[in-house]
Design goal:
The protein is an alpha+beta fold. About 15% of the residues lie in helices and about 40% in strands. The protein has three helices and seven strands. A seven-stranded antiparallel beta sheet has the order 6-1-2-5-4-3-7, with helices on both faces. The radius of gyration is 14 Å and the shape is globular. The mean pLDDT is about 90.
């Protein structure tokens, strides 16, 4: 599988947003799920929440903080570079019900899950 980096933005110091071509993952992704990303053959497997996805374009977005070798390696990759691997979607999706008005609150890097959950509600 070809997991090409399509876009990359620095959201804050040491925090990045990355858009990746991953059509099979995008087709099955649901709010609350995650992927495991491997930057290169020497990197660790990094579990990251799916921050967004686009089924039509076949893309996923992840947000991560650079704290160790593997996340620093991931952050060093550029647009058009390819990731060694992306596995997912994994985990149980968030249970979403029609319950009326919902307020979603989050902070820090954990905010990545808020958008898909809010969209799901």
């Amino acid at each position: 599988m070809n997991f090409t980096i399509l876009d990359k933005k620095e959201l804050a110091s040491s925090v990045s947003l990355m858009e990746i071509k991953a059509p099979l993952i995008a087709q099955k992704a649901q709010a609350g799920q995650f992927v495991v990303v491997i930057a290169d053959e020497k990197s660790e497997r990094i579990p990251l929440t799916l921050a967004d996805w686009n089924r039509d374009l076949g893309t996923i977005k992840i947000i991560f903080q650079q704290v160790g070798y593997s996340t620093q390696k991931l952050a060093s990759l550029k647009i058009k570079d390819k990731l060694f691997g992306v596995l997912g979607p994994l985990g149980n999706p968030t249970e979403l019900e029609k319950i009326g008005t919902v307020i979603c609150i989050g902070g820090g890097v954990g905010i990545a899950e808020i958008f898909p959950v809010a969209r799901g509600f």
